[in-house]
Amino acid sequence: MKTLGVLGGMSWTSTAEYYRLLNEGVAARRGGLHSAPLLLHSVDFAEVARLQREDRWEDAAELLSDAARGLERAGAGALLLATNTMHRVADRIGAAVGLPLLHIADATGARLQAAGLTRAGLLATAFTMEQAFYRERLARWGVEVTVPNAQDRAEVHRVIFDELCRNTVLGDSRATYRRVMGDLVDGGAEGIILGCTEITLLVGPGDVTVPVFDTTRIHVEAALDWLLA
User: Fold this and answer.
1) Rounded distance between C-alpha atoms, residue 119 and residue 115, angstroms
2) Partner residues linked to 192 by β-bridges
3) 81, 97, 98, 99: which has the highest count of C-beta atoms within 10 A?
4) Could you report the per-residue pLDDT of 104-145, keeping only the tens digit for each?
5) Which residues pair with 123 in a beta bridge?
6) b/e map of 188-200 (b: 16 or more CB within 10 Å)?
7) What number of CA atoms fall less than 13 Å from residue 141's CA on the CB side?
8) Are 217 and 201 in contact (CB under 8 A)?
9) Which residues are catalytic?
10) How many CB atoms lie within 10 A of CB 74?
11) Which stretch of DSSP H or E encloses residue 91?
């Protein structure tokens, strides 16, 4: 197998899920004692989150590009950026190295397209829901993205940063997410994109009446395809 470089720590809770799913996936596909050959650079999320809040995306891109260059020097054959929000600077990171970057929105868009969906609701950080980079990437796959109203976007964002990134999973927040997803479906969403890698800790396919697209698992499956090609 090839070696995958993982840019993680954003947050550690979702990176732990990536690590588990990548290894479980290799074991399921290869059998025996096989596990995933990985190089992991886990950043201090407090620094990245500060740069996000301060709208210093170029500085965040440089921080992650430095980490990516380190993974390249260490022998990684491709990069997996284990976060949705920081794909805002994915092109910058990819340009900093001579490695393919497995883009989470492309993997998700391909899955939505294969399912025949053209309109999907998005739950994510406020940055991902409100900025154009994610919607525009999915539009390449023929998918129109809808998002919750401003009050619900703020609450979805709060739960991610105040709870899920701190490994806290609360029933009240699950109920809120279920309601928000239901409202998106009532507004015409044919599916729901869990567009933050922590959300899979809180809700899943059993929490809404339409198909759920868990970007963490979809991203992992794309990485497994690359690792085992």
Assistant:
1) 11
2) 121, 212
3) 81
4) 999 999 999 999 999 999 999 999 999 999 999 999 999 999
5) 194
6) ebbbbbbbbbbbb
7) 23
8) no
9) 83, 196
10) 11
11) helix 90-95
The gap between the terminal CA atoms of the chain, to the nearest Å, is: 8
Residue 98 CB coordination number (10 Å): 8
If pLDDT is split at 50, 70 and 90, which confidence band does 149 have? very high
- To the nearest whole percent, how much of the chain has pLDDT over 90? 100
Per the CB < 8 A criterion, the answer to whether 3 and 39 are in contact is yes
pLDDT of residue 1: 84
Convert the pLDDT of each residue in 183-215 to its tens digit: 999 999 999 999 999 999 999 999 999 999 999
Q: Which residue(s) pair with 145 in the sheet? A: 120
Average pLDDT, the chain: 97
- Name 6's bridge partners: 40, 80
Contact 137, 106 (CB under 8 A): yes
